Amino acid sequence: MTMLHAADQTIELEPPPAQLVRPALFLDMDGVLAPLAPTPSQVGPVARRTAVLEALDQRLGGRMAILSGRTLEEIDRISGGAARSASGVHGLERRRRDGETERARVPESLRNVVTAFEEFARTRPGILVEDKGASVGLHYRQAPESREEATALATRLAGETGLMQQPGHMVLELKTPGADKGTALTAFMTEPPFTGSVPIMLGDDLTDEFAFEAATALGGFGVLVGPARQTAARYRLDDVEAVLTWLETVEETKA
Ligand SMILES: O=P(O)(O)OC[C@H]1O[C@H](O[C@H]2O[C@H](CO)[C@@H](O)[C@H](O)[C@H]2O)[C@H](O)[C@@H](O)[C@@H]1O
User: What is the pTM of this model?
Assistant: First the structure.
């Protein structure tokens, strides 16, 4: 059991139960289904992960979606195409189970930010720019000494453009405003086969807090993956290994 001491309260986060009533599973990718790697492209498909996702999708009658900061193309690449329902770029892209896909309209200022990030990266070895169409990430995992400068640049550009800042694990992102993982989860829950189910969101990052809140508001709950911290999640799992083991148990457990 983890005990997190906040200012005037003690938060205890147990592992989630595996016996669930009509669950709908919403799953984050990096840090939850896949361990963090030095660069985004170093994360690839893994047979165990694809197998459990395919089995769960069938077991839950399609009530499973991946909600990621990555693009839909990246979600498909890493999951081996196991998630028919998916949302990419922090809620800005959403694909329903029947394949119909919605994408946010992207402000032109985002192209200027891509150019400014690329200019910044040109003289700083290790800095990576990830252009995701509706959002752009400035990764400093390979150049942590550039973190302050990168933060100053992202903050200035956010102010100038009205784009939203989405901080993550050693990445700064500027994204199109108007959607997040919470709005994506809520939209899925209004459609078959999700309607009438209990949403459960597994996530590790700040972007996942929106979906923890949305799942809770709809009668479900969030599961924080990783070290305990202040969170809207109700339960916690240690790491990707614990997540895969829990998902396999849920898949094998007859409701
Ligand atoms: O919402 P997620 O599925 O967790 O995606 C969040 C971001 O994940 C990726 O970046 C992170 O993972 C990389 C690979 O492990 C790591 O190198 C990087 O430092 C992390 O920030 C992805 O590249 C981003 O687009 C996602 O927003």
Answer: 0.95
